[in-house]
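JOB MANIFEST
job_type = single_chain_structure
chain_count = 1
residues = 550
[input]
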Amino acid sequence: MIRVWFVVLMVLYNLMFSSTVAGLDNSTVPPFVNIGVLYSFNTSVGRMVKIAVEAAVADINSDPTILGNTKLNLSLQEDSKYRGFLSIAEALQLMATQTVAIIGPQTSTTAHVISHIANELQVPLLSFTATDPTLSSLQFPFFLRTSFNDIFQMTAIADIVSHYGWREVITVYGDDDHGRNGISALGDKLAERRCKISFKAAMTPDATSEEITDVLVQVALAESRIIVLHTSTAWGPKVLSVAKSLGMLQNGYVWIATTFLTSYIDIDSPLSSDEMDNIQGVLTLRMYIPDSKLKRSFISRWTNLTSGKTANGPLGLSTYGIFAYDTIYVLARALDTFLKQGNQITFSSDPKLNQPRGDSLHLDAVKIFNEGNLLRKSIYEVNMTGVTGPFRYTPDGNLANPAYEIINVIGTGTRRVGYWSNYSGLSVIPPETLYSKPPNRSIDNQKLLTVFWPGETTQRPRGWVFPNNGKLLKIGVPRRTSYREFVSQVQSTDTFKGFCIDVFLSAVNLLPYAVPYKFVPYGDGQNNPSNTELVRLITAGVSIVPIIFT
C-alpha cells in the first residue's frame, strides 16, 4: 500500500512540475522590457540615431517571432553635454527606470565615465559610435561595441601609408580619450610597418578657428606632408576648412581622415560647393556594409522614415544609422534567448549606494540588474544576419570580419578606390568575395585604384618637404681650380654645379624622408683645398659634416 501511495505522489509531483515548466513562459516573461538610449539628439548623428532606433523598436514590437508577447519600451535620454558630469546624471536617470540595457553613449569620453556605473549596476552598454580601442579592455566588461573597433581603422590607415611608401605621418586630433587612444593605436600599427608619427598635433575638442590655425601653422612648418585627421563630425570639417585657407590642401599634401568625414558627407549630403572645396582630394574611410536586399530595402525606406523630421536640415543615412538599427535587433534577439532560457528580470538595491544621512541625490532609486551578466553573455552569443550583414562576435569581444571602404573626395562627390579588411588587407575587390580564399597579404596583392590627391593630381605625393624649422645638414664643397666639370661654384652666387652635385641631388630626391642641407664652400678658389684639413675640421667639431670629393 505504501508503494502505491509513493507512486501516486511521484505522479502528482511530476504533473505539478511539468505544469510549472510549461507555464514558465507565461509566468516569468514580462509584458515589456525597458531599454534606454543615451545620445545627443540635437546633433546630426543623434537625430539620425533616434530615427533608426525608433524604427527598429517599432519593427520588433510588430514581429511576434521576436520576444513573443513581450514589447520593448524605449526611453530616450538627451546627453546634453556628452562629455562631462551631466552625462553621469543622465545615465543614472535611465538606470533608475529599471532599464536592462542602454544604447549609447555617443562619445568614447562619456563611455569611459559611465562604463564604471554600468559595471556597478550590471547594465550592458551597447555603443556603435564609441570606438576607442581601450574601451574593449577587461576593465569594462559591460561595455559592448556593436560596430568596428578603431584598432582596425588605424590598421587600415597604417596599411595605406605603407602601401604608398611613406615613412612618417603627422596626426591632428582632439585631445580627449577618443583622439589620444586612437592615435596611440595608430602609432603602434605604424611601428609594426617601420613607419612612425613624426609630430602629434593635439587640439582641444572645442578649439576655435584661431586655435586650429596656430596648430596647423606648426604642422605646415614640419617636413612630413602626410596628415592623419582623427576627430568628430562636429569639429573635423572646421579643421579642414582652416587647412584650406592656409593652403594646406594643395599639391604635395596628403590628408587621410577617419570615418568622421564619411559620416559628415553621408548625413549632411548634399554639401555646398564651399564645403566640398574644403575636402577635395582627401582620403577617408567608411565602415563597410556588404550589399544585400536588407540593406537596399532599409536605404530606400530611409526617405519615408525621415519625412517631416528634417526641420534642422537634410538628414542622410550614414553607416552609424544602420548599425544603430541592427543594435536594437541584437539586443532583442539576446533578450529573446535570455527569456526563453527561463531567466527573470529582477533588480535589487546596491548596498554601496545606501543614501547617506542628509543626502538628496536619491541614489537608492538606482538598482542592480541581477541578471545583467547573463544578458551580457547572451548578447555576445548573438549570431544573426542584419542590415549590416553577418553579425557575430569573436572571442576577444570585437565584431568578426571588420572592413572599410576607402573613399576619395573628388569634385562634387566621392569615389571608392578600394577596400580594407582585417582578413586580406587592401584590395579593389569586395572583402566578402575573399573570405572563401586563403588570405594573401603579399605586397603584389595589396592594390588600390587611382587616387586624385589634393591639387587635382594623380601622381603619388612624395610625402615630405624640407622643413622650415629643421636643422640644416652642412655639406662641405671644395672650391677647386681643377676638374671643375665635377664641381664648381657658380660665379657671384652661393650655388654649385657639376657632376658630383647632380649625383648628390638625385640621391636626396630618392630618399623617402626630408634631408634639409646647405652647401658650404671650402677653400680660397685659388688653390686646390686640402681634403685632409677638411676632415680635421670635422673632428675638431666644425659643423661641416660630409665632403664631396672630386
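[summary]
The CA atoms of residues 124 and 263 lie 26 Å apart.
The longest strand covers residues 413-421.
exit_status = 0
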